[in-house]
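re: the backbone from monday

yeah here it is again, tokenized this time
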């Protein structure tokens, strides 16, 4: 998913990318709110991370229904994209921001980055994703940040892949794992939070000291980690990558199937389900948005069934709308995580910066 997602977030950033998207919509009546006021502009600007992607036909349907066209500004990894919006608070580059997740949400809310708006159709969204009672953000998707592994590498070595956080400390996996910087990447931060959930606030520092001693490699963001360093990805094969373990998403394996030619019967990558942390991504109306009416219409649309069912094979994330269906390829090759690690939002808000600083001092120095 931040995705982050994702972000993801997600596992699509190096495969697809669009800069200007035209239209979007649904026939369930959830789009088109607020069209009576605003700047009068027929362009809505969405700021997001690099993994944002929507089908052309879905976007065109939105334009047909509302009259709005969607221009998308992509700003790198979810963490970097959010930081840019924080720096321009009050004079935003767009109308809606998508991609802030539960690991970074409090940072955005505390400074007033978003204007409250209760999107139409919110009653159909899973209650456990609705963490902001003031409706400053709207839940859009969920995903699980997990270690992925290169099946061929482990088969060739006759070595069982790791399953849990504890497994990653074993000598058999020395110098095999690549992860993202927890200070700049939402998957990296999600992985750090997963280790805190697993090892406790008193034990995660000792865990990371051992993981560093076992040769973990840290890079800036997901795209570099997955597409340049991970030997199991299509991109990694082209670059001669030598890390068969990477922090990515439970939904990453379907990407390797969908975009392969010919498509394999089985995904070449697997998921260590005992290393997963649940991520929720949100969208919000930016404070100071020039096209507030269009922004509200877009938020309504993003929780429409049409948009929600389009996400899995475009952004490789899970819908938050209860009646949205998942495509067969996604369910067949993706991994369903029944008990992901979680950390309470208020605990993340209170401790995130200290945890990141501690992690940086332990791992990056």
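seq for it, each position gets an aa:
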């Amino acid at each position: 998913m931040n995705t982050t997602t994702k972000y993801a977030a997600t596992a699509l950033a190096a495969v697809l990318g669009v800069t200007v998207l035209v239209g979007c919509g649904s026939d369930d009546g959830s789009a088109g709110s607020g069209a009576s006021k605003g700047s009068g502009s027929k362009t809505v600007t969405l700021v997001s991370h690099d993994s944002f992607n929507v089908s052309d036909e879905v976007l065109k349907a939105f334009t047909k229904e509302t009259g709005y066209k969607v221009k998308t500004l992509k700003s790198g990894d979810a963490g970097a994209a959010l930081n840019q919006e924080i720096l321009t608070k009050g004079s935003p580059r767009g109308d809606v921001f998508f991609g802030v997740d539960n690991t970074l949400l409090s940072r955005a809310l505390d400074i007033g980055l978003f204007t409250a708006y209760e999107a139409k159709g919110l009653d159909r969204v899973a209650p456990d994703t609705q963490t902001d009672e003031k409706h400053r953000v709207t839940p859009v998707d969920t995903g699980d940040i997990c270690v992925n592994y290169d099946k061929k590498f482990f088969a060739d070595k006759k070595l069982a892949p790791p399953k849990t956080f504890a497994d990653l400390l074993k000598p058999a996996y020395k110098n095999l794992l690549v992860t993202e910087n927890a200070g700049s990447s939402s998957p990296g931060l999600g992985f750090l939070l997963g280790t805190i959930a697993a090892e406790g606030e008193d034990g995660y520092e000792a865990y990371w000291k051992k993981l560093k001693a076992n040769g973990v490699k840290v890079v800036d963001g997901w795209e570099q980690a997955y597409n340049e360093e991970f030997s199991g990805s299509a991109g990694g094969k082209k670059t001669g990558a030598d890390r068969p373990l990477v922090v990515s998403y439970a939904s990453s394996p379907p990407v390797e199937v969908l975009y392969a030619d010919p498509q394999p019967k089985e995904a070449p990558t697997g998921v260590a389900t005992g290393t997963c942390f649940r991520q929720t991504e949100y969208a919000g109306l930016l404070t100071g948005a020039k096209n507030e009416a269009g922004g509200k219409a877009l938020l309504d649309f993003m929780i429409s069934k049409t948009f929600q069912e389009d996400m899995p094979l475009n952004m490789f994330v899970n819908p938050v709308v209860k009646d949205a269906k998942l495509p067969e390829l996604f369910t067949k090759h993706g991994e369903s995580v029944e008990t992901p690690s979680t950390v309470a939002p208020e605990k993340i808000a209170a401790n995130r910066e200290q945890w990141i600083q501690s992690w940086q001092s332990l791992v990056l120095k």
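The radius of gyration is 20 Å. Residues 44 and 70 are 5 Å apart (CA to CA).
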